[in-house]
Amino acid sequence: MAQRVAVSDGGNKKTSRVRVAVRLRPYMSIPDEKDEGPCVRGLDSQNLEIINWRNATETVKYHFDVFHGEQTTQQEVFLTSVKPILPHILNGQNASVFAYGPTGAGKTHTMLGSAKEPGVIPRAVREVFNLVKAKDEGEEWDYKIGMSYLEIYNEKVLDLLSPNSQDLPIREDKDKNILIPGLTHTIITSFLDFDKHFVPATLNRTTASTKLNQRSSRSHAILLIKVVRTRRVPPQRQQTGKLYLVDLAGSEDNRRTGNQGIRLKESGAINLSLFTLSKVVDSLNSGSAVRVPYRDSKLTRLLQDSLGGSAHSVMITNIAPEYKYYFDTFSALNFAAKSKLIVNKPFTRETVAVPVLPVKRAREEHEATGSGTEPQKKRQKEEKKDEQDGSSPSAHYHSLSEPSVMDRLIALEKLMMGCQDKDRLSVLKDVAQSRKEIQELKEKQREFESKAKLFSQLAGEKSMSKQEPSFKNNIAPLQRKQTNASKPNKQQAVVQPLQVSRLQPLQQPAVVKKQSVCVKKKEKKLSNLVESPEGKENMQENAWESQLDTSLLEQSRQKILHILNSGCLKELKALQQIGDKKAKLILGWREIHGHFTKLEDLIKVEGMTEKRFSSFMKANIVSAMGN
Ligand SMILES: Nc1ncnc2c1ncn2[C@@H]1O[C@H](COP(=O)(O)OP(=O)(O)OP(=O)(O)O)[C@@H](O)[C@H]1O
């Protein structure tokens, strides 16, 4: 029904870039925490700098469309970053404002604000009413304003205007308009009318306390304001403009939030959708030939019109100045810097004469009651229950020099190398290269050391009883053997790596050959069993693995784990059954969650089912043993 018309913007086919603003919230010192001062500060209305994690005497500088410093008022944010795009929605175009950033950095403050300091949402809605009012009567258009309000919680689309709603589907019509059948759409006639619906609906939003924010938004909230204008005289042309106001859930590092139980699950969903958002940004930046993965998360599917689509978009990246947010701030700034490159192509949506706009749409068809439905009350109940086994109260603090943080920064830096910002690229290239080399040397050293351990374990085992039971998990044999080889004198520790590196090529092929036969013999049985229910599958996997030499198996597992944790894209792709896409997903997972602590963590990577994991393990263990 709706058609794109290229002419209704006065023939203006100009593209519109996503404007990126960064807002720094005021420093908040917490009584029991070390007060180290800010790690980031503004330079002027467009530039800011953050301490360089590689060298604390240096800073890294960023340039954005707008920088809002700590003293910036809610009104200034609105006037500079939001107000200019609002007139477009009266002309049948889309506009969107979304707040992005780490948890606790001020997204909700920016979007919602408080009664004393109202944020973008109340100000924008008021302005839309003002704009409609100010329109010339003689213009012969009638305007109607409507609202919908939803949240994406754990990848479910829930109607905040109808709190008992269930997961709603997202559809796209033939003209690529995103639709949510069943979502409440309410006509509003004034700002007061809006407030009447909006305030109670906001209380339906899922929030909870985390270590970083007393009242943390656990969902992405999207307010849609729709302006439909209809020509009074026939033919009754109708144009629809949509304004999306989005308060994203915070990007989180669970090592700092202390999330567990349901908080951790929520966090997984939040990080997944934000990760997809960053993939969408990457794809848009890399050119039109690439498939933009909008469909990989509900958030990006809904924001399809707002990013690289037809909207005038503003992204307000909220950041916090405290040191404990350093990694999140650094990530958020890099994400924002990438988003700056996106170019939207605004167009007007126009339909032919639909005289009556329904006040409230019909609820979703009955068949949509399928999997994953979850009414609000049940959700809250579930939350309460899980919160009981939730987070410990102690505050986590990670210094910048801590290895895990360093590893993640290095990983992030590597990812940044893939983005198209040439300035950053050239600055980082040399540093990244030398860091990579050092890292590789360290890894090699670690590899030698673990080989040495294994060798001494092997030697120790020969003298042990053959009655030793086969191991039950990948940690057990090492622990067991560690006690055996736990008191080598220092001389041995130095000599062993050399011995292992010489002896292995001679020993391994013979053992591997024997084991390949074992694997082959078992293969048919195994492939049947991979299909079997979970428990059985695990049992059978152990059965398969227990046919192999435990130390060699462990060695192979460590090798694979090592590649998963420190392999570059090429090295990951060299693994069996890992293609380009999966390798990138693994890199992405590492960037968000840090290291894989065990191989089984691989199942948490998008698209890696237990079955795939099992077959991945078989292929790679056999391959690693053959090397
Ligand atoms: N510009 C600001 N001025 C004053 N206080 C602020 C500002 N920005 C944020 N705050 C305060 O900081 C705290 C955290 O902010 P807020 O809840 O908006 O963070 P958030 O990014 O939405 O977090 P989450 O993702 O966890 O929901 C709140 O108490 C808020 O009032």
From TrEMBL:
Gene3D superfamilies listed in its UniProt record: AF1531-like domain (1.10.150.280), Kinesin motor domain (3.40.850.10)
Keyword Secreted assigned to the entry: answer is: no
Residues annotated as binding ATP are 101-108
Principal place where this protein is found?
cytoplasm
Instruction: Quote one Gene Ontology molecular function term.
Output: microtubule binding
Q: Which SUPFAM superfamilies match?
A: P-loop containing nucleoside triphosphate hydrolases, RuvA domain 2-like
GO cellular component terms listed in the entry, alphabetical order: microtubule; nucleus
Coiled coil regions in record: 424-458
Q: Which PROSITE patterns match?
A: KINESIN_MOTOR_1 (PS00411), KINESIN_MOTOR_2 (PS50067)
Q: Which GO terms describe its biological process?
A: DNA repair; microtubule-based movement
PANTHER family registered for this protein in UniProt = CENTROMERE PROTEIN E, CENTROMERE-ASSOCIATED PROTEIN E
Return the similarity comment: Belongs to the TRAFAC class myosin-kinesin ATPase superfamily. Kinesin family.
Its name, as the record gives it, is Kinesin-like protein
Organism, scientific name: Parambassis ranga (Indian glassy fish)
